[in-house]
Amino acid sequence: MSRWDIFFKQIQHDLKLYVYVLAVFCLFRLSFILILNNYLEPATSLADILAALYNGLHISLKSSGIVVLLSFLFGSILVTIFNNSKFEKIRFILGSLYIFLLTVLFHVRIPYYEVFHVAFSPFLFNTFNDDVGALLVTIWHEYHIPLKLLSIFCCWFILSYILKKWLQTKTIRMPHLTSLCAKTCFRTSLILCIAVFMIFTRFGGSLTYANSIHWENAAVSKDNFLNEAILDDVQALYRAYSTYNKFKKATNLNINSEQVHNYGALLAGHTIVTTNVEDYLKREAQGAMIPKPSHIFLIIGESYAEWPLLPEFKDLNIANEVKGIIDKDNAVIVKPFLPAGSGTAIAVNSIVTGLPNLSLYPNYKPESYKGSYATAIGLQMKQLGYKTRFCYAGFGSWQRIKEFTLAQGFDEFFSCSDFKYDAGNAWGSEDKYFLEAITTLCEDNQPSFNVILTSSNHPPYTVDLAKEGFDESIVASGLNDTSDKELINKLGHFWYSDKQLGNFIKSMQQKYPDSLFVITGDHADRFNIIPNPTMFERYAVPFILYGPGINKNMFTNNVAGSHITIAPTLIELIAPKDFVYYTVGESLTRGNSFGFNDTFWITNENIGEFDSSKTEMLSVTHRISAPKPDLTQQKQLVDAMQGLSWWRIMKGNQI
């Protein structure tokens, strides 16, 4: 058998591998849609699903080509060169390993989507900055890993067995040609076909990049879930990695000193002659609006979203404590309010520093440990005469939170390592014991500012709810399906977190009646009882003020905000007139009407994404219709806030 005969046979085996792997991609995509079909929009039709499968087939041509290229190089070429069939085993080994990877990713993707509503996000690559041990314990406890491993092994074994049999099927012989001209034409055509096939595969069913399908243009469906299904797991991972690299490049933004001065003048409202970034962020307080509290408690509830507070979810009865606080005359809620981002660490970074999220993770940046940022909430509260304290229900080593908060103006750090608790998990103490311990910290009668970060409303959901008094029937009237025990358990943990938060506030208010309580959430995009929530239901967190001097009418009707508006709002509430403070965001007391984070913006009428035309009206403000606002001016201000913050974190205060 000639080398050409061998080569012709081998590329047929490669083609069989290609077809089989492509079929596996399609099988997993269809399974993903079927298993999570409840995430489909109500208006989605069969035609939409078929279109998604078709576009997914195109994009998976590229993903299938990865393993086939390796098979071609290390299987077909080596068999042809050395005329040794032993190298054929490489093809099966490569195919089997690739299928194992796809099987693992498929099993991971389903729970990942249920939590994050995306098929792998760029924050996946920041995992090792988190508490890896606690994450592993959470995954093991929450996702039935032994069963998952068994399922992965069985799927992989079956698919690999079928692949082996498929690769053993017969091939056709190379045409027997006698003339040199015919042989040359056939061989040349064969090589050209291989080259064209590679291009066709590389561009996902096209011969040019302009007409190709890739992760950046694959979202062709009106259904967000189908857009995620179009991407196979390899492409979804590649998208996450590409986006993560874009975030990393934020550390090398090409911002020069002239731009910094222009940004500063825009934020300050006038030209300032200075070489310090923070001079542009200087403000003077208008004068205290409420009696100065003896103690301030800023509570950041783990995954405390705003949607359970909405009237349409009242029958769940999982947020009754906080709703009871909101109903009081000396309490106010700002409904159009966004977290700094999609993670707890992002929220902590933004609230502590007063700077917007830029995916820079200032808790790992050297500049954050040279001294406090002038915008830091701990530093400024200390200047107002408060002893500052950061309390976390977890461990101080998580995300360097102890080092970071102490470096940013907090006098003390308090964690679960500082007290005994009867129940908890790998993330730390249950909220009940954590909040009870905090009640003992203010007994020296020194005015204090306390940031409190809870943890129980977070996987693994290990609280003994029955012991804590949770009755599953209380949420039943708000659910269509009461057989989903896992969902009820998650709702129960929100109920538990809300209950403990309410108990803590009642206890501290009894001991210190003139205290001010501030309630917000770190993020919201993790859990919802409906598969396709509105953007507001999915992303908004509450901002609540409760205490002496607070009233329902203290803010104008058009206010909206985000985590960077917390510090200036608190300062304007209690600081004497002309007190100098520093802020990137604007105080809600001054009518701030625009909240934002790295992805979304919000006003009293609308919520939307910066990088898309998607906008939704807010039903919570009772708007019947509201046109999308012209964001040109707001975007300029956001760019200025982010630009100055980037320079301060990356290059310091000097311009």
TrEMBL record:
Which controlled-vocabulary keywords does the entry list?
Cell membrane, Membrane, Transmembrane, Transmembrane helix
One of its Pfam families is Sulfatase
Q: Where in the cell is it found?
A: Cell membrane
Q: State the membrane topology.
A: Multi-pass membrane protein
Pathway-wise, it operates in:
Cell wall biogenesis; lipoteichoic acid biosynthesis
Q: Which Gene3D superfamilies match?
A: Alkaline Phosphatase, subunit A
- Every copy of the Sulfatase N-terminal domain together lies at 326-573
Q: Per the UniProt record, which residue ranges are transmembrane? A: 17-39, 59-80, 92-112, 145-163, 184-203
Report what the protein is called. Answer: Sulfatase N-terminal domain-containing protein
Naturally occurring in which organism (per UniProt): Sporomusa silvacetica DSM 10669
